[in-house]
């Protein structure tokens, strides 16, 4: 009996579905859909292509944005795009740095020295000095969980004489100590297996010919995580630098000595020429002779070159080095007096080079105002090290490169100052991040800068140990344009004003200022004066940036012809050199009790990064400065303090908000930005977000920021909060910011690059896929249909103007397209974006080759390659999952635009491998016809119909299910430029149903 033929219509109004079982995707959904968009409610059309806009000069850029409607690319440099010349200009260097900080040691006593190493299993061993005793502890380097509580290093009946150091040798934490047992000075090691943190170590002698020095007369370096090379200050033969090695199996090798050499500072660094034959460099300094030397050895301790002198004189306080194929780079800390006082000192870091053959270069000052705070390390061909700014008021650590440029900072005003008992290691972990231990002041009373306070210094109650992790060359940049500057996250908060990227604000405010008394030569009357100094800089937009003011200093003059001499330290840590920083002096007097500007506006006093201080003589009368600018803090306005390293940022209520990289529970926000002013941050404008939430438990630190309507949205990994309110005024008063309010939901966000605004709310990627935070603050799993891509990382997300599309570029090279009008998903291929943005209201992306491409409406080429549509339907089983049907034919209906070809593939019975392939050649074109000779009409008229219909007969009619794949391909016979091709409205299946189930192969039947 013939079957009754039926027609199943499939409107192309739905997108892909990767969540449902592939054999049961609902009727009308697609198994996959590439390069197609929903231009109408029930039809698929080809997407636009992307044309090459311009290629960047290098491939280091990883982030694309706009500033002042100009395209901007950021990597190791910041590039600005000129639309007129279609070219890029390098506006200055930026070092991508991601900073993470973990508290490691917190006890009832203060620590005075620390060193940490991290093992491959994530355990960290920290050794430290505390109240005259020497201890170690083991913790989890990810969570900070204590594994082994602080334990006194076993001395074996002796007395440990100085700061211990720790290394990773094979599968052991390897602790080096100086120990005196029975009046014999010994260099010893203790080992703790990284898998047995509770193991009790015992000291093993390396040598008994050792002279201890408190500044650090031993050091070591591990080559290939296998052999540790140790150098020390030997006591034999009147003094000799000695070197030995200990293998990963704890077997000590030979010891070599360099007679006549004495070391009060020691540094060891290894360079592996081919990952198996390291060169061992030993650098040492002798404080008795004020000389320093370097030597080089093979891995078997054969001499490459004997000690060569690279320091001829001067007091050196610390020493470190790096090496590469060309030889050795040495960095050493020296102390110098300010020009205005023999007892007022600052430190600086000097560098030199020594070739692989032992030829010494010429020394030069690398950076002023810093001492060494860690050993140096190499990333690429650049050396980095932690430096420390010593100050009563603002001791801070700065990560600097070998050009003396600051690339990150930690512990602003909370650092512990100069190190005098050796430098902590800076070693790479398994992720390639460099970990450095540093001392951190954990309890603080803020500095009181009130005029007339006798002792304004802060009171620091206790010091702990933190572990900083620097990922150099890696940064998930975020940016926000506010105050006519583009602000960029990283190891420091960068600000780009259109001319050059610089640090936002000023790393330091002026301190160590000295009034050297009053004298004659001026017209200042006899009275009491107070002086304050600030740094000031005008950016390319004309905004005036001002530092925090210095501590007020007072002097009382005598007579009517007085003058006052000020000695002011310069700002040596700054990128603001193309347009130099101004040093501005403000004066208050008993007769005119307002701080007026003293220094000239027309002839400013400029800063210099190559000198440590300047001298300024104030001679003018009060009457000459009344009417000048008034100090910006007048009236109780909060002083400006440079923000910390920032991991995330956004704009909210005319303020810049950011997440502190050192404490991701702490948000900083700026003063309100008004026209003509820059972003001004302060450590008094912060917002704490508790890491726990009732029954929710620990929700961790803030991972992303965004804005939804009148709310600031705070994302954590598994939670969402929001804040409302405008915030305080510039005096810190009238603060109406709400508490962080928990949003009920199940998915947070760890990927700020994925957050994008849509008419429905914020879409974002969580560790559970792509979600929507609606305007009603309800969360919805909106990405279920593209769940197959959950393991891919979203690199950028944009809402495209003029469309209903949100596009997520993934690290797999696929772009997810979501149409928020039809609530459907599709994919774009051949769009290998590593970053994207909107430029000229068009989707613009950057690829890994440094090419920047922009969507080109009406053009269907991706940088010369044709854009080709493709889709695969669900399994079409009209009789149910395992029913029996006879499918006779397929019919396609669409609209023809330009010549094209379609390859139609048919799969049968749930076998995805196609068993039938047919090529459809569509060419509706014909010449216009009709005209004057025929009907007396005007111009020619008539032509081909735009209706495109095809019927395809199925070669296998008896089947459970069929699956149809339509793939457009380009045929060069149609010309060199592919066109739009067609749009498809739908497909119909002509079929008849059998009453019984599909017959299973007997070989697949059991029971």
Overall pLDDT score: 91
What distance separates the N and C termini?
33 Å
User: Strand portion, in percent?
Assistant: over 45%
Rg for CA atoms: 35 Å
Give the helix/strand layout.
Blueprint: E1 6-11, E2 30-34, E3 36-40, E4 43-46, E5 49-55, E6 63-67, E7 70-74, E8 77-82, E9 87-93, E10 97-105, E11 111-118, E12 123-130, E13 133-140, E14 146-152, E15 159-160, E16 165-169, E17 172-181, E18 184-193, E19 204-207, E20 218-223, E21 227-234, E22 240-246, E23 252-259, E24 265-272, E25 278-286, E26 291-297, E27 303-311, E28 316-324, E29 327-337, E30 345-355, E31 364-368, E32 371-372, E33 377-379, E34 382-389, E35 396-401, E36 406-410, E37 426-428, E38 434-445, E39 459-472, E40 479-482, E41 485-488, E42 494-496, E43 501-503, E44 514-524, E45 528-538, E46 544-546, E47 553-556, E48 562-569, E49 582-589, E50 596-597, E51 613-618, H1 622-625, E52 646-652, E53 655-660, E54 666-669, E55 686-688, E56 704-708, E57 711-715, E58 720-723, E59 741-743, E60 756-758, E61 761-766, E62 769-774, E63 779-780, E64 794-799, E65 805-810, E66 815-819, E67 824-828, E68 835-839, E69 842-846, E70 851-856, E71 861-862, E72 865-866, E73 870-873, E74 885-896, E75 900-908, E76 916-922, H2 932-935, E77 947-953, E78 958-959, ...
Antiparallel strand pairs: 1-80, 2-73, 3-4, 4-80, 5-70, 6-7, 7-8, 8-9, 10-39, 11-12, 12-13, 13-14, 15-17, 16-17, 17-18, 18-19, 20-21, 21-22, 22-23, 24-25, 25-26, 26-27, 28-29, 29-30, 30-31, 32-34, 33-34, 34-35, 35-36, 37-38, 38-39, 40-41, 41-42, 42-43, 44-48, 45-46, 45-47, 45-49, 48-51, 49-50, ...
């Amino acid at each position: 009996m013939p079957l009754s033929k039926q027609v199943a219509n499939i409107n192309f109004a739905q997108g892909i579905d990767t969540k449902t079982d592939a054999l049961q995707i609902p009727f009308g959904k697609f198994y996959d859909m590439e390069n197609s968009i929903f231009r109408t409610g029930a039809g698929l059309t080809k997407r636009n292509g992307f044309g090459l806009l311009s290629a960047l000069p290098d491939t280091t850029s990883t982030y694309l944005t706009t500033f002042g409607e100009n395209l901007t690319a950021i990597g190791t440099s910041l590039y600005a795009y000129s639309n007129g010349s279609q070219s890029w200009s390098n506006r200055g260097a930026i070092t991508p740095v991601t900073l993470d900080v973990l508290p490691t040691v917190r006890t009832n006593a203060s620590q005075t020295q620390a060193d940490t190493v991290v093992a491959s299993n994530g355990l960290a061993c920290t050794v430290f000095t505390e109240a005259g005793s020497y201890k170690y502890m083991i913790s989890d380097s990810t969570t900070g969980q204590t594994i082994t509580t602080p334990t006194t290093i076993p001395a074996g009946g002796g007395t440990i004489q100085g700061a211990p150091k720790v290394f990773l040798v094979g599968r052991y934490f390897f602790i080096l100590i100086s120990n005196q047992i029975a009046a014999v000075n010994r260099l010893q090691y203790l080992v703790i297996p990284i898998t047995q943190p509770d193991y009790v170590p015992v000291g093993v002698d390396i040598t008994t010919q050792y002279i201890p020095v408190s500044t650090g007369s031993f050091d070591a370096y591990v080559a290939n995580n296998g052999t540790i090379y140790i150098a020390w200050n030997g006591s034999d033969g009147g003094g000799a630098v000695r070197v030995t090695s200990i293998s990963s199996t704890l077997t000590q090798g030979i010891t070599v000595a360099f007679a006549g050499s004495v070391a009060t500072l020691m540094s060891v660094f290894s360079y592996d020429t081919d990952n198996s034959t390291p060169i061992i460099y030993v650098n040492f300094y002798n404080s008795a002779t004020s000389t320093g030397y370097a030597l080089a050895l093979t891995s078997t301790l054969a001499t490459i070159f004997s000690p060569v002198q690279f320091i001829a004189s001067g007091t050196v306080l610390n020493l470190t080095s790096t090496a590469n194929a060309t030889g050795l780079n040495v960095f050493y800390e020296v102390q110098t007096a300010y020009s205005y006082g023999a007892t007022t000192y600052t430190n600086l870091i000097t560098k030199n080079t020594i070739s692989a053959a032992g030829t010494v270069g010429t020394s030069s000052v690398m950076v002023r105002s810093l001492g060494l705070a860690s050993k140096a390390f190499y990333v690429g061909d650049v050396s980095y090290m932690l430096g420390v700014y010593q100050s009563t008021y603002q001791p801070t650590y700065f990560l600097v490169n070998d050009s003396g440029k600051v690339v990150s900072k930690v512990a602003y005003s909370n650092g512990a100052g100069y190190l005098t008992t050796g430098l902590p290691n800076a070693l790479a972990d398994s992720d390639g991040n460099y970990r450095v231990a540093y001392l951190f002041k954990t309890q603080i009373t803020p500095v009181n800068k009130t005029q007339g306070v006798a002792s304004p210094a802060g009171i620091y109650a206790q010091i702990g140990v933190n572990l900083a992790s620097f990922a150099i060359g890696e940064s998930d940049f975020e940016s926000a344009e506010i105050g006519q500057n583009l602000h960029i996250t990283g190891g420091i908060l960068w600000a780009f004003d259109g001319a050059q990227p610089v640090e936002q604000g000023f790393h330091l405010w002026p301190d160590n200022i000295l009034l050297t008394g009053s004298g004659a030569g001026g017209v200042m009357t006899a009275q009491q004066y107070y002086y304050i100094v600030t740094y000031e800089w005008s950016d390319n937009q004309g905004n005036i940036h001002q530092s925090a003011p210095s501590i007020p200093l007072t002097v009382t003059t005598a007579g009517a012809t007085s003058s006052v001499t000020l000695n002011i330290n310069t700002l040596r840590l700054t990128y603001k050199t193309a347009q130099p920083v101004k040093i501005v002096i403000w004066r208050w007097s008993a007769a005119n009790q307002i701080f007026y500007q003293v220094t000239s506006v027309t002839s400013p006093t400029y800063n210099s990064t190559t000198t440590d201080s300047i001298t300024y003589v104030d001679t003018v009368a009060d009457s000459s400065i009344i009417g000048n600018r008034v100090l910006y803090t007048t009236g109780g306005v909060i002083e400006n303090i440079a923000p910390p390293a920032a991991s995330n940022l956004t704009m909210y209520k005319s303020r810049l908000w950011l997440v502190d990289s050192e404490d991701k529970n702490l948000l900083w926000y700026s003063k309100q930005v008004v026209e003509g002013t820059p972003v001004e941050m302060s450590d008094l404008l912060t917002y704490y977000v508790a890491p726990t939430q009732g029954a929710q438990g620990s929700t961790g630190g803030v991972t992303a920021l965004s804005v939804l309507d009148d709310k600031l949205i705070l994302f954590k990994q598994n939670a969402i909060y929001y804040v409302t309110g405008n915030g305080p005024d510039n005096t810190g008063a009238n603060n109406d910011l709400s508490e962080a309010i928990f949003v009920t939901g199940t998915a947070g966000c760890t990927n700020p690059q994925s957050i994008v605004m849509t008419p429905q709310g914020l879409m974002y990627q969580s560790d559970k896929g792509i979600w929507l935070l609606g305007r009603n603050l309800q969360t919805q799993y909106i990405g279920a249909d593209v769940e197959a891509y959950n393991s891919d990382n979203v690199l950028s997300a944009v809402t495209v103007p003029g469309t209903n599309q949100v596009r997520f570029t993934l690290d797999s090279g696929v772009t997810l397209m979501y149409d928020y009008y039809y609530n459907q998903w599709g994919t774009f291929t051949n769009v290998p974006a590593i970053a994207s943005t909107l430029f000229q209201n068009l989707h613009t992306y950057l690829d890994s080759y440094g090419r920047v491409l922009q969507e080109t409406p009406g053009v269907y080429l991706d940088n010369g390659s044709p854009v080709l549509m493709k889709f695969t339907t669900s399994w079409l089983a009209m009789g149910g999952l395992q029913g029996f049907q006879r499918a006779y034919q397929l019919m396609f209906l669409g609209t023809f635009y330009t010549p094209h070809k379609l390859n139609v593939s048919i799969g049968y019975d749930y076998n995805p491998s196609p068993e039938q392939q047919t090529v459809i050649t569509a060419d509706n074109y014909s010449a216009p016809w009709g005209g004057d000779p025929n009907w007396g009409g005007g111009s020619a008229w008539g032509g081909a119909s735009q209706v495109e219909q095809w019927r395809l007969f199925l070669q296998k009619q008896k089947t459970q299910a069929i699956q149809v794949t339509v793939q457009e391909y380009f045929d060069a016979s149609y010309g060199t430029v592919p066109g739009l091709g067609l749009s498809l409205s739908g497909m119909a299946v002509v079929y008849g149903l059998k009453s019984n189930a599909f017959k299973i192969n007997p070989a697949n039947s059991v029971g």
